[in-house]
Amino acid sequence: MKKLLLLSAFAATGFFSNAQQALRDNRVERVLIERPMVSHQSNTPVAPVHHHNGSQRAGTLGHVLNSTRIGSAGNPLTVLEGTSKQIDVNDSLNVVTFIHRNDPTLTVNTNVAQFRYDESKDRGNNWNSDIGPITVDPSIDNISVNGRFPQAVIYNPAGNSIVDSAYLIYSGTYHNSPPNSTTGNWVGQMRGRGQLSEVVASYDVHIDPINGGQVAIASGLHQGAPGVFWAINQNFTGTFATNSNQTTIGLIIEKGVWNTQTKDVTWSYQNIPQTFVDNTPSGSAVSQSIATSFNIAFDPSGKFGWAVCLGDIDNAANDSAYRPIFWRSIDSGTNWTGPLVVDLHQVQGVMEHLGANLSAAAGGTPASGIPTTGFEADLTVDALGNPHLVTTVGNGSSYSIEDATYDVWDITHNDNASAGCTWVGNHLAKINTLRGTLTTAGSGGTAAITEDNRPLVSRSPDGNKLFFFWTESDANFEGNENNDFPNLFGRAIDVAAKKITQIYNFTQGDTLWGGQTSDSASGIFGGATFPVVGQTCLVNGNNYNIPLVLTQIDYGHNPASGLGSPDNPAAFWYVNNLNIPAADFTGNIDSTPPIITLNGLDTMSILVGTTYNDPGATGVDCISGNVTVNSYGIPDTSQAGVYTEYYYATDASGNSDTVTRVIIVGGIPVADFNWTFPTLTYVAHFTDHSSNIPTAWHWTFNFPVLGDTTGSTFQNPVKTFDHDGTWNVCLVASNQFGTSPKVCKNVQSDAVGINEVSFAQHVSLYPNPSNGKVFIAIDENTTPEFTVAMYNALGEAVIAPAKYGVGTTKVEM
Predict the structure, then answer these.
(1) Which of 123, 137, 565, 679 has fewest C-beta within 10 Å?
(2) Three-class SS state of 159
(3) CA 807 to CA 805: how far, in whole Å?
(4) Torsion on CA atoms 216, 218, 219, 221, rounded to nearest 10
């Protein structure tokens, strides 16, 4: 079975997010349509609920998961896009924020299209939730202006140390289609700011169309240099109409700059044209671009920026797969270079980890061997200005990912690398499940929500520590590769020290968020659903505290009765103790073998007796950079023969790999051969005995009288002679060093010696010894005719050859 990401036509009951538009296993995955909410609780705001899990989590950090119920929204459309950035922190102000859509069941005269936020001023321990709406504008009516996928970052003006004087800068995509409508499209951004003092007078919102309304969903809201904000969008031609083409024709880089006079952000955008491969599914009239998971990020200084998506722009034959495609800025976003396409075949370790076969569930069909990313990714930029894209990689074909084992990779860039190491892969984990179904279908025809591995990344404020996350289910429990009961996994890298942690399972056994496994029960909410992490973490002494929010889907639903509805309100829970100790960075980041290549040819030929000049081999390790190459099996050039030399490369972490070279030691052949007649017929078997390892042969079989000139190019041919006589057989042998002189021998097809092998079985001589008279007895019908001659010990003929006819059984001599 293959997992597909194919954009589909908008249906009458909903419309799509460009990154979520998918035909996956023949299921249309839709971004959910808003409709009036049925309240499952009173309009009284919900007080924070703290959950303390008393069970130890297997394979984790040795503490319990501490979850706090914060805000809620009218449906899950806050968190469906993994590239949206809802959490932000400011380490110096001790503040954490989370933005989300409104929950109209909590407050009268509000609608789901508005935005609220939650705020903690003590590093995530205590929360004030559902603040706002921060989008204070009557035009946001869930009809003509319908806000979704909000993002927010904290801006702290220079010199400020007061939390209430800092600002929340937010931006969320909006569309102009009312519920249950098939008209309209994404138009632009609902953007604004509000002080963290929670004073309503500090809130504002701008309803900003972008690119003439030809956009998709913005993602990656990010602060580069202080007071400079970035997001990425698409120049996207799709609308909500059924059978609308879903074509991306470029990137839109959105830039905001803090205005100290207006105390607001001034936004502009830059359009970068880019054509992607067009793919129209069988039976569909909808044109679809192979492009998804757009993101943008800057390093801590704000100078080095990277934009990225997963897609295809070159339409290589037999390689219909998704690849990371980057654009780069080295001047604080003024100019962008690209596209820079990552060929996953060339990333060290990818092909070795890819795997050769599909799972047994797929019938053992061989996998394609073509690496493809999944359809989700996340991005950060480290202290050195290098990007880190976390994504799933598997076998791919026809823009789908095959049911086989998968790998989670950190794909990064290295300016100072040797040839072949521009793009580097840090292997994070091998996984067995990909996609899960997390809700039932909605009551109004809205499709069930599915989610893949949800790759996420956070970093330390200085950009030296990177924290990667993904979800995976227990394939032994599932019995297949579905990700229906996800646990949250993670791993961290120190890019400065080139060290890595163990793999953590953060949620297994948790009474709320644990995904069921073969040896642990499910949590109340069925798994770690829709995790969101902060772009940066909090530093608590020797611990790195990563902000984490998990989503309770359909919070008024009883989980015991099955999956909840995607139409109903969702609740958000903050985890305040996801800590990774500095002491855990002990492993070598380099876990893949070095790349070793032969210098020169893989097969060499040298003359016997000459000196062998070893061309050697080159070892490259894209991660550690230090490789030692040794070899053994040097040929003995005094003896002709075929030798194998082995080269092995070992990196600083002890990983190794081997290549071989074949060396042929020889010279111009000296032709020689012999022959036998294994049966009492005219069939002769010739055997080549030429020296110096010939590689080609030319035989001729010539009867002097009749002029038979048939030949053969086999090394050891078989020749059938059609009558008695002496044949002049010749052989010429050749190889890369030259051609031998012709060697010829006379072969008799009527001599007794022809059947030496069978002589003792068919002929007897008596008496033996004899004083003179000798009798030769021959088995009846042994041969059609034969010749007998007698020679003494000196090789002199004693009795001349005499021929006997068919049926002769006794000869007196």
Answers:
(1) 679
(2) coil
(3) 6
(4) 170
